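Batch manifest, entry 17 of 40.
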Amino acid sequence: MAKRIVIADHLDDFRAVARLVHELAHVRLHSPAALRAGLGLVRDGEDRGAEMWGGIREVEAESVAYVVLAHHGLPTGAASFEYLAEWARQVDSEDPASAIKATGARVVNVARRLIDSTDRYLKNDRTTLGPVPARPLDSAFLMPDLDGPAR
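Output type: structure tokens
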């Protein structure tokens, strides 16, 4: 069954694209097909709880979105790192960096596949992207109506 991603229609173009990449990363990393193919998060048999696994999934998806958007000249700014840090702290409050490090290989592999796919699409359609104006340091992902850690 095909996955369907729905993005809120009140988001500006940048936030909509950023959210789409984030959600696509979830599909590529965390769908049953991705897990069966060995591409996504695999539990090591240790029961660490749903919150921890949810935190890792968010760290992975946000990291993929950051890399893909940066490749295409759409930087998400410092707030993306704050979002990652908040989720990573939920995974391991003593060493949040370990949660980010643990996801590195999966993030790189999925980001590379998405970049290759979007590059092929843009090349085949001969679509050129114009310059992107600088954005204030706000987050494409920290909208009050979107999921994320409670503050």
